[in-house]
Amino acid sequence: MSNKVLDIIGFLKLILAALKASNVDYMIGGAIAEWAWGEPRATQDLDVVINLPIKSIGKFSKELEKRDMLVPADIILDTMAEDRADIPLNAIHMHSGLKADLYLMREGDALRQSSFRRRILIDYGPPIGKVYVHSPEDLILYKLIYLGISGQPKHARDIMAILKANRDKIDFKYIEEWVMQLGLGSTWEELKGNIE
To answer: What is the pLDDT of residues 67-101, one digit of tens each?
Structure first.
């Protein structure tokens, strides 16, 4: 590793390289996906959904370790085996402290499975290039969930930015079907009302 300070883009490239070397499918969420659909904002961590087959766990763990992140294979297996809330694996870069929250695809998680099928390949240009990100609709849904959990206004701002930038392209029917299933109708209606 060079002495150059690692920024969030460099860190993203390390995560993407580990995923590619392990042949693991992924989808970027959070602030990085927001860059594609809303407006850029600073971030110090990454949100990445991974479809990690059991046979690839050891390879993925080793590829992360080569890039100065320790996520032991047994921890990944334990996390997969647990039937618990959607708590991610943390891949923390040892030298910079930058963190990637790695969300595992799980059986029975219909929203995540739907969003993974709907992921979109976006070209950010150099130095990132083409990466898979949440669709704007699925990013909105996850932002609504996190807004309900944390109450952090950044999620509401992100949703508003996505709606304003993509108003004519958003599949509102898809969002509203999920909003009803997730019990997020009042929050959604309030946010949607602010742009109408």
So the answer is: 999 999 999 998 888 766 678 999 999 999 999 99
Q: How far is CA 124 from CA 20, 37, 102, 144, in A?
A: 18, 11, 21, 25
**Which one-letter amino acid corresponds to residue 147?**
L
To which H or E segment does residue 121 belong? strand 120-123
Classify residue 3: in a domain, yes or no: no
Q: Whole domain around residue 184: which residue ranges?
A: 137-193
Check residues 6 and 59 and name the one with the higher pLDDT: 59
The end-to-end CA distance of the chain, in Å, is 50
Reported confidence tier of residue 33, pLDDT bands at 50, 70, 90: very high
Name the residue type at position 144.
L
Output Rg (C-alpha) for the chain, integer angstroms.
Answer: 17
Q: Does residue 185 lie in a domain region?
A: yes
Residues written for the chain: 196
- 0.90 exceeded by pTM: yes
Q: Are 49 and 115 in contact (CB under 8 A)?
A: yes
Report the C-alpha gap between 33 and 40 in whole angstroms.
Answer: 9
